[in-house]
Design the sequence.
């Protein structure tokens, strides 16, 4: 089959999508199979949103869509007609960081920073979920859930558990979230493990002996 025939047999699978990204309207011509993640990164060059696993496992691609957190790698751009999307690039306003970005910096909530845009978009949406009184897997009594929830540490960890951080900045991320959510700006304190804790850890995680 020559090139001309191929072009005739496989017409471009194009669609038009209009969406509002970071308060700016965009009209995109895309292959209908394009994910929102690729539309943001490859077509609009908004590379703040990160591609980690590209199949819904790591949370690196989290954006805020119509007020809810959304995995951009699992979202077809074609389904986003008219949607309002906020990426990490849209959180700071007038040269002022969003309070969550500011808290992440002050609490050292990142190391390499690759997961950070997704973590921050999740955390910002989680503030709204708490305000609206939305339940999570660990909410004790879902019948009596109230608005303006003050989230416990267990709740925060559970609700942010869809965002994986390979650097392990989790404790600082929780501290950053707590500060913005409830004003608790306690910094983490670090102590060396006691001899008893070390003994237990060694017993629980015995390494295989060398052959
Ligand atoms: S890149 Fe989307 S969840 Fe990993
Ligand atoms: S800070 Fe490196 S992956 Fe989270």
Sequence:
């Amino acid at each position: 089959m020559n090139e001309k025939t191929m072009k005739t047999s496989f017409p471009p699978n194009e669609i038009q999508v209009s969406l509002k990204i970071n308060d700016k309207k965009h009209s995109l011509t895309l292959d209908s199979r394009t994910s929102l993640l690729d539309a943001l990164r490859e077509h609009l060059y908004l590379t703040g949103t990160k591609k980690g696993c590209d199949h819904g496992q790591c949370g690196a691609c989290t954006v805020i869509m119509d007020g809810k957190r959304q995995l951009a790698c699992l979202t077809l751009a074609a389904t986003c007609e008219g949607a309002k999307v906020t990426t990490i690039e849209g959180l700071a306003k007038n040269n002022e960081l969003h309070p969550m970005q500011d808290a992440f910096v002050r609490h050292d909530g990142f190391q390499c920073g690759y997961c950070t845009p997704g973590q921050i978009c999740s955390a910002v949406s989680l503030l709204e979920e708490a305000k609206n009184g939305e339940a999570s897997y660990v909410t004790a009594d879902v019948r009596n859930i109230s608005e303006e929830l003050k989230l416990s540490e267990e709740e925060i960890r559970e609700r942010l558990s869809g965002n994986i951080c390979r650097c392990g900045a989790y404790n600082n991320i929780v501290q950053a979230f707590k500060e913005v959510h409830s004003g608790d700006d306690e910094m983490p304190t670090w102590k060396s493990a006691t001899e008893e804790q070390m003994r237990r850890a060694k017993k629980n995680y015995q390494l295989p002996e060398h052959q």
